[in-house]
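Data availability (excerpt). The following record was deposited with the supplementary files.
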Amino acid sequence: MLASPLEQFVIKPLIPLNIGGVDISFSQSALWMGIAVVLATLLMTVSVRGKALVPGRWQNISEMLYEFIFGMVNDNLGSESKKYFPFVFSVYMIVLMGNLLGMVPYSFTYTSHIIVTGALALGVFILATGVGIARHGLHFFSLFLPKGLPWVLAPLIVAIEVISYLSRPISLSVRLFANMVAGHTMLKVFAGFSVMLGIVLGILPMVINVALYGLEIMIAFIQAYVFAILTCIYLKDAIELH
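Predicted structure:
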């Protein structure tokens, strides 16, 4: 009997730990987060250690990632880009590594869990809000009241703007989580079809699965980009009160 397509998202403890009735077990999700941090650190340090004039493959990849994200941050934040680049780059790499490592057989996609994407989105939201209040004080709340708005419409527009602002971490986290869950579920379903239909009839779903795998790789990069670009936009709103 084939396992449920959703079984791949079940968190399983590798090292059971319980302190004071609180379960703090080390799970496969934590393991793959650790692997992601190690790999990202190695990629961005070891690959450029030689600083070759003609970069090798890995140095090329790290430099392309650096330049791509810095360009994105600079386009959105301008003179403030150097200050916030490390944060945006870290967020991008955490999401990207989680998405890509999840495509490795027998791995675990930690970005398929709302608790992970939600924590990342909440961190972005808190930082952006904190930056806005620190820079503008109470004037930050003028963000919810567009200039030139008739006072008769102010209560309605302010309510809409506040709800829209507070929904940012929800939309940011759900977008990434939903895309990862949907994509990996489809891969599992078509893989199951290949097994059930046998060698001959299973060729078609296998071909579809190969195409889906390529699509998921592309989505892994796109979703990391979307998460990073929205982080830049939220910071820009906080800095410029747009």
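Summary of structural features: The first helix runs from residue 28 to 45.
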